[in-house]
Amino acid sequence: METPISRTALIKLIRRLAEYEQWKRAVFIRDRFQCQLCGARNGRKRVIEADHKQALSSLVKENKITTLAEALGCFALWDITNGRTLCHSCHEQTESYPVQLRRRKTKKKGRKKCVSY
User: Fold this and answer.
1) Which of 50, 55, 91, 110 is deepest in the core (most CB within 10 A)?
2) Domain of life here (predicted)?
3) How far is Cα 36 from Cα 38, in angstroms, rounded to an integer?
């Protein structure tokens, strides 16, 4: 039996799983490596990212996941219909973009907070 860990630590571990990489790859393939908001394609100056429509943190909380074993067994985490391909610029403007990254970027570059859709 696994020892429960903090939600933040658990999410970091989930993002490192091979299953998470498979989920991202499946989303990219389904969306043909193209941003679903602006239509940009992956390339030299444009990086695409897999976005959770419902944030990973809320899925973990909602499904009461406290261990990696529970995460691996939770269908909602691996359902590609909850994913979409976005370019980095579009991803930053979504509500599901990690708040910690948004704040860090705002502080570093002195930018205003990103506007959510």
Assistant:
1) 91
2) Bacteria
3) 6
Structure tokens at 60: 């973990």
* C-beta of residue 91 within 8 angstroms of C-beta of residue 50: no
117: helix, coil or strand?
coil
Give a yes or no: residue 105 inside a domain: no
Model confidence, pTM:
0.77
Quick one: which of 43, 31, 45 has its CA closest to 86?
31
The tally of domains found in the chain comes to: 1
Residue 71 belongs to a domain: yes
Over the stretch 39-77, which tens digit does the pLDDT of each residue have?
988 776 778 999 999 999 999 999 999 999 999 999 999
> What is the distance between the terminal CA atoms of the chain, rounded to a whole angstrom?
41
Instruction: Decide if 90 contacts 34 (C-beta within 8 A).
Output: no
Which range marks the domain in which residue 74 is found? 7-88
12, 53 Cβ separation under 8 angstroms: no
Residue 30 lies in a domain: yes
